[in-house]
Amino acid sequence: MNNKCLYCLAFLLLFTKLLYGQPDNGIMIGYWHKTLARQLGVSPQSFKLSQGSVTVLRSSNWMWSIFDTITADTSAYYYNPDQHNSFSDYYGSLLSRAKPIPFAIPVLADSCQLNTAILRYIAANNQYAWDKTIDQLFAKIPLSHGLHFIADTIMQTITDQLLKPLSINNLLGLTITRVNVSISCDFGRALIFNSSPYAIANPNNFALNNYSPWFTPCVYKNLVVQGLVAQAVRNPLEISSTKPVFKACIALVIADSINVSLKLQSVSKTILLQIAHYFPVNPDGAITSKVVNKGIIYTLTANTSSPAGNPILIGVLLMPVNLLYSR
Q1: pTM for this predicted structure
Q2: Among the listed residues 318, 79, 73, the one whose alpha carbon sits nearest the alpha carbon of residue 194
Q3: 11-33: buried (b, 16+ CB within 10 Å) or exposed (e) per residue?
Q4: What is the DSSP string of 213-281?
Q5: Of 44, 56, 34, 6, which Cα lies nearest the Cα of 189?
Q6: Mean pLDDT throughout 209-232?
Q7: Pick from 301, 163, 317, 192: which is nearest to 254 by CA?
């Protein structure tokens, strides 16, 4: 399956090229985002869609690089890693700014002391692993449940301004046209795969034997209490001057064995032709017509599939860094 066809994977991918980067057209992608979050059983506030199609690579380092990314929450629906830092560097920055933490209980284990956390971080030698490997992800996919649903909605468009929002000013002299949207989504397997920074040695996971645990959750929690997180995210070298909330990836949303059908119906063939331009379809074959109540209804159909064994990253789950591992 070529890259152009991959753009069709799920309604998300079918509409990414049409809608992404056009804030006026957020209603449709917002509908898909909310529908998919509900079907997955996750919070829409934590769920972000992938931009385009991302094939899952058989590389732990590839997977860890996604988990290691922290991103400014600048997009309502899409995962946007363009403005980012790494969580491992961010955690190291917190350690370097911290002062000795005065624990109230003197019998606390040495493993929760700041100096021990710093030594563990240094011992990692810039090899920051997570506690799950790509082999574990691929092992879980065949054991995962499928996700099957049909979603229907209606979008209203102005003939001369495709998918632009309606207002009193642009209604004058223009024709409002309704487009019925029906999505049939079949993910043979759907997996929410979570992972955390490598904190406890796991001798049973041979893939991690070459890596040192570098993260100390209890120390991180104390650093959050000290307010160092708030200081770090306001460092102009780490994020833009707008100071948005930093978020870190806590889970990957994976789909495998994908079959999706998108059907659009309208009385306007012009609008469907405009939409078809964004899909890898031949409008002459994809758009059909039939007479209904003495009028003509046009239908644009786009289908796509991805065979089992070619899992796709559909999105990620994010959490604010000031809440991460701090409870």
Answers
A1: 0.81
A2: 318
A3: bbbbbbbbbbeeeebbebbebbb
A4: ----HHHHHHHHHTTHHHHHTT-TTTS-TT-PPEEEEEEEEEEEEEEEEEEEEES-HHHHHHHHTTTTS
A5: 56
A6: 81
A7: 192
Query: Which residue type does 319 have?
Result: M
Amino acid identity, residue 207?
Answer: A
Triad 260, 258, 279: Cα angle to 5°: 45
Closest to 114 (Cα-Cα) out of 85, 91, 141: 91
Write out the two tokens for 106: 């003197």
Band (232; pLDDT cuts 50, 70, 90): low
Going from the C-alpha of 170 to that of each of 74, 158, 234, 272, the distances in angstroms are: 29, 8, 42, 21
**Whole-number Å distance between alpha carbons of 251 and 130:** 12
Can you tell me whether residue 193 is helix, strand or coil?
A: strand
Q: How far apart are CA 6 and CA 12, in angstroms?
A: 11
What confidence tens digit (pLDDT) does each residue in 281-316 have? Answer: 888 889 999 999 889 999 999 888 888 999 999 999
Residues in the chain, overall count: 327
